[in-house]
TrEMBL record:
Classification via Pfam families: Ribul_P_3_epim
Claim: Manganese is one of the keywords in the record: yes
Active-site residue list: 41 (proton acceptor), 178 (proton donor)
Binding site for substrate: 14, 73, 149-152, 180, 200-201
Higher taxonomy: Eukaryota, Metazoa, Spiralia, Lophotrochozoa, Annelida
Protein name: Ribulose-phosphate 3-epimerase
Organism the protein comes from: Dimorphilus gyrociliatus
Length: 227
């Protein structure tokens, strides 16, 4: 976890709901419209009942999107198996799921050794207290507000106490929220203390993605200033 800096608000579109045949164009369009990072959803058909893409696509994408922060949301079993491949393909942060590996410490160590930032996520059914023993070793905690696997699902407001728990204890921790986040639900996320805001459907399908991302950022910054 980074020290001496208060968490700042960052908006990361999830391109899960976009036209994946146009991935590079979609990513560049999001960056041109003010995205702070890109949230790339990797699914293996085992950890979640859906599939997307893996490191070969990320490697190609990196050539066309050279400067963006790639937050890899790894919805895969045994995430430790793909750390080196993702690092050499251009991933910036490797966000794995606590539930997906029996060796959380080993996975974290591998990610660090590969030179990436470490994100760890939990599904809605997992208690937030699992973060406590890893907090000094990770850069970001991801609180899922849908069951992972699909975009466009309904936001689970009952996950907010998890974010509040983390924000109260760890002021400088990056806390990411992912799933059903939109201008309608950002107040709850920001009130709870989330600062890395992932939004897929609401941004990618918007007529004006810049306006939606600005709205999310404004609400988040306003609430975060209280912490
Ligand atoms: O990880 C995910 C799903 O497992 C996606 O990042 C998430 O669902 C974003 O899409 P939306 O904002 O449409 O819910
Ligand atoms: Fe995601």
């Amino acid at each position: 976890m980074s020290q001496n800096t208060k968490a700042t608000c960052k908006i990361g579109p999830s391109i899960l709901s976009a036209d994946l045949s146009q991935l590079a164009d979609v990513c560049n369009n999001m960056m041109d419209n003010g995205a702070d990072f890109l949230h790339l959803d990797v699914m293996d058909g085992h950890f979640v009942p859906n599939m997307t893409f893996g490191h070969p696509i990320v490697k190609c994408l990196r050539k066309h999107v050279p400067n963006a922060f790639f937050d890899m949301h790894m919805m895969v079993d045994n995430p430790q198996n793909w750390v080196e491949d993702m690092a050499s393909s251009g991933a910036t942060q490797y966000t794995f799921h606590y539930e997906a590996t029996e060796d959380v410490d080993g996975c974290i160590r591998k990610i660090r050794e590969a030179g990436m930032k470490v994100g760890m996520g939990i599904k809605p059914g997992t208690p937030v207290e699992v973060f406590d023993q890893y907090i000094e070793k990770i850069d970001m905690a991801l609180i899922m507000t849908v069951e992972p696997g699909f975009g466009g699902q309904k936001f689970m407001g009952d996950m907010m106490p998890k974010i509040e728990y983390l924000r109260k204890k760890y002021q400088e921790l990056d806390i990411e929220v992912d799933g059903g986040v939109s201008p309608n639900t950002i107040d709850q996320c920001a009130n709870a203390g989330a600062n890395m805001i992932v939004s897929g459907t609401a941004v990618v399908y918007a007529d004006d993605p810049r306006q939606v991302m600005n709205k999310l950022r404004d609400v988040c910054n306003e609430k975060l200033s209280r912490y």
